[in-house]
Amino acid sequence: MVQRKEEVFSSAQKLRVEVVSNTHLKANFYRLTIKTPAYFSKAQPGQFIHIKVGDDFSPLLRRPFSISNVTSFGVDIVYRIVGKGTRFLSELREGEYLDVLGPLGRGFSISREAKIHILVGGGVGVAPLIFLARKIKEETEGKVSILVFLGFKRKEEIICQNQFTGVNLSLHIACEDGSYGYRGLVSQAVEDYLINFTSLSGISIYACGPVEMLRAVARLSFNYAISSQVLMEEIIGCGLGACRGCVVRGVAGYLRVCKEGPVFNIRDIAWS
Fold this sequence. Notes:
Strand order of the largest sheet: 4-3-7-1-2-6-5
CATH class of the largest domain: Alpha Beta
Number of helices: 4
Helix content: 10-25%
CATH architecture of the largest domain: 3-Layer(aba) Sandwich
Order of helices and strands: EEEEEEHEEHEEEHEHEEEE
Radius of gyration: 18 Å
CATH superfamily of the largest domain: Nucleotide-binding domain of ferredoxin-NADP reductase (FNR) module
Structural class: alpha/beta
Number of domains: 2
Strand content: 25-35%
């Protein structure tokens, strides 16, 4: 059984961090590496950093970005240009500085009983799964199987596939238009894989991506009685749980994505 840790490392300290690199991956996708204090090594997969994206009050709100990896160089995030804030990030150069809060929120809890860990990502939601896959390998000493399913609309949008490697890890890619890998939705690719198992015990699912993908993963999890966690994406205001601007509807009331999440057990979310 997956148990939520009572104490979760989180720091709301405001930091001025240096840009180590800002690499163009493809199309509108980038990987940003920032130099962070040593305590970031305690960050959990699924946690996020809150970045001030601009030199003035426009955009007013910070932007949340899931941590895609923690390395000796600092912290990586992967982002896609979708507006003024991410355009600002794409123009940053090595040696410049950013105003950052983090790491924030609750991350994934790695199941100790699972022998098969299924990671499901859609679009830029594949990024935090890089960190998660690494942590699973470290904490289980490579003694479990990791199945990674990544979904994209088309071949030209495939990112991060080279980040998922290692013994006992298999990668599966789905494109909705059939231009690469499995033709169709990544959730359907996961279900097609599950129906071939003679036993579904010892499986745990972790997912991050568009809400419709998460809803489909939740349906699979309920139908097949599989323990699952999802990383929810919402517009986040303060990032500290005070403004309550990022709530999602849970089975026992509203939940703050930045505080009770962004990672939730699927049974805590009201999906209908």
